[in-house]
Amino acid sequence: MKKIGLTTTVPIEVLLTAGYTPIDLNNVFVGSTDYSKYIDLAEKDGFPKSLCAWIKGIYGACISNNIKEIVGVHDGDCSNTKALTEVLSMKGIKVYPFSYPSSHSLKDVKRELNTFMDLFHVTLEEVEKTKDKLNKLRKLGIEIDRLTFEDNKATALENHIWQISFSDLNGNIDNFSNDLTTVIETIKKREPHYSKLRLGYIGVPPMTTDIYDFVTNFDAKIVYNEVQREFAFPRALKAKNIYEQYLDYTYPYDVYFRIDEINKQIKNREIDGIIHYTQAFCYRTIQDIVIKEKLNAPVINIEGDRLNQLDARTKLRLEAFLDMLLDAKEGIF
């Protein structure tokens, strides 16, 4: 199967039906033991320092890993993606565009998906068969999430890693299914571990994955990873078709649609506080104003740039936030 790079989660059902192996360039970038080399390559090729590290990382991962074709999401993700794909096109990489319509209407979602299917010469019937196959796999994503917030057996980092991997299924559906099944069986055998504080993590998946272990020092656990969970499409089984599935995907649409789902999870998971992660130079940082006003839980906003570990200042801010939540929960004011 031919490899195709992704700048974010897209309808992989279409790509798999067309015989492609999707490769999420975000995961290649952040998962690298030497992730900074991708940023350095982008800056060497002219990308400014005052630009989101993710965009530079995606560029570097694409060039370094000999990706010849990519899907670039021009609307519904990073506002810099269009310029990124123009540079990649100049480098001889074939770019397939895709957009999540800002209107967030079923009619427009259907139009975009039909255009995407036409690009790859596949039919709706074929794509629906692939969707049915992936729905069996998505049940495993729902299960590892349940093992995190309900059974308290899966760790927050496991929750993050496995749900985020649904964006490209680690490049192989069958291997991914077998690996996740084995992991779930192992997790189920554990004794549950409870924490005083139950936290939600919202925003783009972090470069600083040490955040999951850091909060455990304060008797806290992240029991909800917002965007990672969306990548796993937990409500796909309820969708009548591929159009409804991508209409219900919260990440690419307006912040109020996201907030409705986040508030549901705050209630369902009995979350005490929210960590809102944003990337430096990203427009989503502005949305923190709305999020703090509309969410039904206290919120702290932390910002990452090009480091893959929490810096000292962010650790201090998180510690103060968690202390405040603990005091509130224990009735100390």
UniProtKB/TrEMBL annotation:
This protein's record includes keyword Iron-sulfur: yes
Coiled coil (UniProt feature): none
This protein's UniProt keywords: Iron, Iron-sulfur, Metal-binding
Cofactor(s) this protein cannot do without: [4Fe-4S] cluster
GO MF annotations, alphabetized: hydro-lyase activity; iron-sulfur cluster binding
Pfam families: HGD-D
Cited InterPro entries: FldB/FldC_alpha/beta
Family: Belongs to the FldB/FldC dehydratase alpha/beta subunit family.
Full protein name: Uncharacterized protein
